[in-house]
Structures are given as C-alpha cells and as structure tokens.
Write a structure and sequence with these properties.
Structural class: alpha+beta
Distance between the termini: 61 Å
Strand content: 15-25%
Shape: globular
Order of helices and strands: HHEEEEEEHHHHEHHEEHEEEEEHHHEEHH
Largest sheet: 5 strands, antiparallel
Number of domains: 4
Strand order of the largest sheet: 6-5-4-3-7
Number of strands: 16
Radius of gyration: 24 Å
Length: 416
C-alpha cells in the first residue's frame, strides 16, 4: 500500500506511521526510500525466513550477495526482489527466474522422493508458489542459471564436492535417474541425468536399452537431436554442443550446459515462458515473442531473426515441441526487464515422431507451408532442413527405416 493511502486509512501522521513501522520490525517492510514508498506485510512460509538473501555465482565460481527476496502478503503471495542499492520490483506471484529455478520436468518429478524431509506434495502439479520457494530456498544449490536463493542452499553449494563422471559411469547414473535418485532442476520430459565430466557440465539423455521398438525410436531421435544441433552450428547459429555415446545396448546423448562454466562457474539464463508471463502474458509462439522483445528493445534484431529461423527450421524437421521452455536467453535475471541475448538452441529434434502412449508413429513429413510470420526466412530454413534430413539419411547410427524416411524428406525439401 502506498504511504499516502496508509496514512489516510489509519488517519495518522507520517511520524506516527514511522514509529508504528519500527515497532513492527519483521512484520512490516518499507518498499523504497523516497516519499513514494509503499509498505507491505510479510507472510510466513513454513521452514524459510520471510527475507531470503539472493546470491549470484560468477563465471569463475565466485559468490556475491546481490539482492533480498521479501515474501509479502496479499493475493496469492507477492514477492519484492530488492536489489543492492536499488529498490527493485514487486511481483504478483514468483519472479520469473524463480519459476525457472523450481523443480520441473522428468528430474523435477523425483525431487520429493529425493528430499522427503521438506514435506512437499508428491506431484509437481499440486505445488503452489510457496512450495516452489521452499524447494529453491532449501535445496536450490544446483538450479538452472546463476542464482542461489537462501543461506541453506548456499551452504549446500559451498559443501559440494563433485567427482567427475566417466562414460563408464553412465549406465549406473541412468539406473539412478530412472529410479528417481538423481536430482536436478533441469527441465524437459525425456529421461535424463546431469553430470560433471571433468571438462563440462552436461545433461545426458538416454535410452533404456531394452531393444524394443520404442527404445529403437528413441535411439534414432537422440542422434537426430545431435545432428540438428550440429547443422545449426555449421550455419552460424549458436547451438548446444552435443555428443552421442553408446554403452552396450544403451545410447546416451551428452548436451553441454550453457548455464555452467567449468567446475563451479555459472551464467544467468531465463526461458521464454516466465519471461513472457511477466512482460506480456501471451505465450503464443516464438516469432511473436521475438517481435515483442525486439520492439521493446530488449533483444537485438539479429537474435529476433534467429528465433524466427529456429521456428521455421523446427517446423520443417518435425519438431512439434516448440514450447516456451525450449527457448532461452542469457540475462541478468533479477531485473524485471533485462537486456537479453539468445542462448544456444537446444531440444531441437523431430518430436513429431516420438513414441506416444506406447505407440511408435510412422515417419512422414507432411506438406509444410510457410506462415506469414516465417515467410522471410523460409527459403533459408528449408535449405537448412534439407541438409539436416540428408545428414540423417547418411548416418549409419540410425535405423534403416528412419534413414529411408529421412531421405524422402530431404528429397521433398530439395524439390520444394
């Protein structure tokens, strides 16, 4: 509530209000230092303080405190992210970066099994924002991006002693991930685990290795993902570095994390979903978001065009999973309107051909025609997609069925 409105409501003077606020230390907070200041009441969340320190881990692995997160009453819960020497912003609900940091996806679903002491609901879909705050503030030492919330999570980060994993360890780590004992906040629904190889922090997707038709399709798709990222790289579009590793009957796809540098360094990232929710509330499609960000001078025109090209390329290779969680930006994520830089592409693969409900679909790239949003980049995207499908057709790591379908797709695009 603004100070003036509070003064009128209480029918009191400014000096009396100051005395009242001082007497309610820890219950009421002044937001801002000037006459336009507002006042908020703290709310209590079980197991965490109402004022949480926010730390940033630098690219060299050094830690500094950069902000304080104040948990405020009102609505479904407000948050004031007070930055050092800056008033900062009050958010209805969680700040976008904490939405990204909270457990999600395949690994996030196992978070409660790994940390039963937190007493959180077993299903992520039953969590509210306070549950997410508890998870991030108490077990948030390895969240996406470069921030750590709360002293407890920072102490856990400081105590970490990570042993490098070799590829000989991958089978064991895959078993642990499938059993729900390998935790991380890395998003996405494909089975995976995270590891430190001694050179890179990686997300590792894997097949179960049971030689079933479903398993074979995922073996093909993991190679497709690696080839799609390599195709983008050769075209000058930043994409995550990746490698295929076969161990026995299992196939692994290593993808280097771009929010991690070396053993302990980090870099700030923000995905498109929470970013758009905070700024626009649209969540429509990648080109539309790119246009809004470029219009508001939050994203360079070159990066906006790259997003549109990624949209068209994804459509032409059958990537039906182009949601806002699969588009990320480097950003100073404590700012409500940060200047953004497009992060490397990731999760780019023909998901239209992924098994669904136990069924392995046919591989058929139907007619794809450009929408107005991607018309300018369509010829470039089509040529790039044809190169991708040709690489798939020639790669002997894929099944004969997938390679034949890829050859047909490449021929179709060459003639388009």
């Amino acid at each position: 509530m603004p100070a003036g409105e509070l003064l009128r409501t209480l029918d009191t003077s400014r000096p009396t209000l100051s005395r009242l606020v001082k007497g309610l230390k820890g219950q009421v907070v002044r937001i801002g230092r000037r006459r336009g200041a507002r006042y908020g009441a703290y709310r209590q969340v079980p197991g965490i303080p109402s004022q949480l320190p926010v730390f940033r881990v630098s690219q060299l692995g050094l830690v500094e405190r950069i902000a304080t997160l104040h948990l405020l009453a009102g609505g479904s819960g407000r948050q004031w992210l007070e930055q050092v020497e800056i008033t900062g912003d009050v958010f209805e609900g969680l700040p976008p970066i904490i939405v990204d940091m909270a457990p999600q996806g395949y690994l996030g679903r196992h978070f409660v099994d790994i940390h039963p002491e937190l007493g959180l609901p077993r299903r992520l879909q039953d969590w509210n924002n306070d549950h997410r705050l508890i998870a991030v503030a108490r077990r948030g030492e390895d969240c996406a991006g470069d921030l750590i919330i709360g002293e407890e999570s920072l102490d856990r980060f400081s105590a970490q002693a990570r042993e490098p994993a070799t590829r000989k360890d991958y089978t064991r780590l895959a078993r642990a991930a499938a059993a729900g004992t390998a935790g991380s906040s890395a998003g996405g629904e494909q089975v995976k685990f995270t590891a430190w190889t001694g050179a890179h922090n990686v997300i590792v997707k894997f097949t179960l290795g049971d030689n079933s038709p479903i398993d074979q399709r995922w073996r093909d798709l993991l190679v497709c993902e690696s080839l799609a990222l390599e195709t983008l790289q050769t075209h000058g579009i930043p994409a995550a570095a990746s490698r295929i590793v076969d161990v026995g009957s299992q196939r692994f796809l290593e993808v280097e994390r771009f929010d991690r540098l070396g053993a302990r360094g980090r870099r700030g990232v923000l995905t498109g979903g929470p970013l758009d929710d905070n700024l626009y509330g649209k969540r429509d499609n990648w080109p539309a978001l790119a246009g809004r960000l470029a219009r508001d001078d939050l994203l360079a025109a070159r990066d906006a065009r790259r997003i549109i090209l990624l949209e068209a390329f994804g459509e032409l290779i059958g990537n039906s999973d182009r949601h806002f969680g699969n588009l990320a930006f480097f950003a100073d994520a404590v700012r409500s309107t940060p200047r953004l830089e497009l992060a490397p592409a990731y999760d780019m693969l023909p998901m239209a051909f992924a098994p669904q409900n136990g069924i392995v679909p046919d591989i058929h790239l139907g007619p794809v025609r450009p929408r107005a949003q991607v018309l300018e980049v369509w010829p470039e995207a089509a040529a790039l997609a044809a190169k991708f499908w040709q690489r798939v057709a020639e790669d002997e790591r894929l099944s004969a069925v997938f390679r034949a379908a890829a050859k047909a797709s490449a021929d179709k695009l060459d003639k388009a």
